[in-house]
């Protein structure tokens, strides 16, 4: 197995891991939305809204990163392997 193949395989594994992280965020979103609706104190509502916004940002980053790493795994693997070969 060449260095480029190993790098591409690791990038694909990392892409799948990002999708699993996105699923974790998706499963926590309903409880965060429920906490916003049931909170009675104003400053807690704003904190929950901030947490919801950060969760949506995490969901976007994990999903976009997972797609990019899976789709572009082979070219990125070759790029990383070339960079590693030059510096040896």
Q: Care to describe what's here?
A:
This protein is an all-alpha fold. It contains 3 helices and no strands. It starts with a helix and ends with a helix.
Gyration radius from CA atoms, angstroms: 19 Å
Query: Ranges with pLDDT <50 over ≥5 residues?
Result: none
Average of per-residue pLDDT values: 85
Order of helices and strands: HHH
User: Largest sheet, if any?
Assistant: none
What percentage of amino acids are in beta strands? Answer: under 5%
Q: How many strand segments?
A: 0
Label the overall shape: rod-shaped
Helix content: over 70%
How far do the termini sit from each other?
18 Å
Helix-and-strand structural type: mainly alpha
Number of helices in the DSSP assignment? 3
How would you sum up this structure in a few lines?
This protein has helices at 3-38, 42-71, 73-86.
């Amino acid at each position: 197995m060449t260095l480029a193949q190993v790098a591409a395989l690791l990038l694909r594994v990392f892409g799948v891991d990002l999708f699993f992280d996105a699923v974790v965020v998706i499963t926590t979103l309903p409880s965060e939305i429920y906490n916003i609706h049931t909170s009675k104190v104003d400053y807690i509502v704003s904190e929950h809204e901030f947490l919801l916004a950060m969760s949506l940002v995490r969901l976007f980053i994990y999903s976009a990163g997972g797609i990019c790493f899976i789709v572009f795994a082979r070219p990125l693997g070759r790029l990383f392997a070339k960079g590693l070969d030059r510096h040896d």
